[in-house]
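This entry is set out below.
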Amino acid sequence: MNRLAVTAGLVGSAAFSGIAYVWKKPAEHFKDTTPLTGVDLSQYELKLVQVLFRHGARTPLKPIPFEDEKQIEWKTSLLNVPPHTLVDYTVTDLNGGPQPPSPVEDTYRKQKLKGGIYPGQLTTLGMQQLYELGQKLRKRYVEEKQFILPVFSPSEVYVRSTNIVRNIESTRCLLAGLFHQNQEGRIRIVTAGAENEIFYPNYHICRQLKVLGSPRWSKFSLLPSVSEDLSHLHKLLEIKETKGVDFILLRDNLVAMEAHHLPGIPALEKNSEKIKERASEMLHYVFDPQGRKVLQFAVGPLLHLFLENMEMVKNNGTSTSSSNNVKMFLYSTHDTTLVPCMMALGISDMNWPPFGAELTLELYQHQLTKEHYVRVLYLGEDQLVQGCNSVLCPLQEFHEAVAQYTLSPEEYHTNCNQAQKADGGQMRS
């Protein structure tokens, strides 16, 4: 499986061996654990909501290379579609044309798991998780705040997903929960081709991200204490072909089995917490080298889009994606999108985002001063953005807080391709 396919769906702390892990997390990228007080919104009007959410529970992206008799069986019954998660929708490219090809999805379709289903597929459980997230958003923005209508309207809600089946299906389920299957015409879910995708760290189009970030996936596993722990697990699991079997792959299989209550593998279950800790540590290590470049190339264009949407609402009352007054942006993404985004905001808690995790940015306007403020929530809880003095962060202050990580599309393209001029464009793995 290529790196794009792995990182699009992927993504640990102290170890089995007892040897101290040498990487130290820089405090500025991680959450202040000080409890937050409630936010008084009585003098503020909600103007815009942007929700970045992870897909629901799925099958593993790649099985652990056991002998066939030890492989977990993933039955087709795990993919049954609950009728209440259905909506009428179509998928287009960014300009309203046909859905573009998906090389990432193609890699999943090259093999089947034992039991007959493909890797990375959204399961019935995952569908229900995203339906429930939709219901949660409905309660907040339809029933309590009465911010959007109870019927889907494209003039109010803009929907975009990465061009991967589990994300598109997750989006469908969320919309079913949010609008209880009530809609004005067919819903359009927008996707980008792989050459234009900014909703996951795109190693294929950003050469600098590949040069700076890719080596860190393998480098982590070579750190002395990590390497020893991994070798120990390989022996416990009796894996002969260990290439590519890192903590992330082990966690991915472990979490998928746990979520679906499938028969466990004793060696995985016994070391469950340690595997999860190491995998999370690995993901944060990849996106947290010295300096800011990897975070810039991973989520810089996405942060720019967030700010651009807010500025357009502030200045004109309209969004960048439509001439109408879009009030809500729904973005279906991945764990490898959420983690670097939260690191850039300084709110990462070093935990792996669960299936169906959501990061929400709300834009408010003070009714008297007319000033705009940003509120960030993760899993429904208020977050204090690094560089902001309060949970309700003045828009300009929020701009300054994330400025070092944002990249406009032009800056992204220019900076991503700088290295090609330096070395003649030869790609390094």
Remarks:
- The two ends are 14 Å apart (CA to CA).
- DSSP finds 14 helices and nine strands in the chain.
- Confidence is low (pLDDT under 50) at residues 1-23, 420-429.
- The first strand starts at residue 44 and ends at 54.
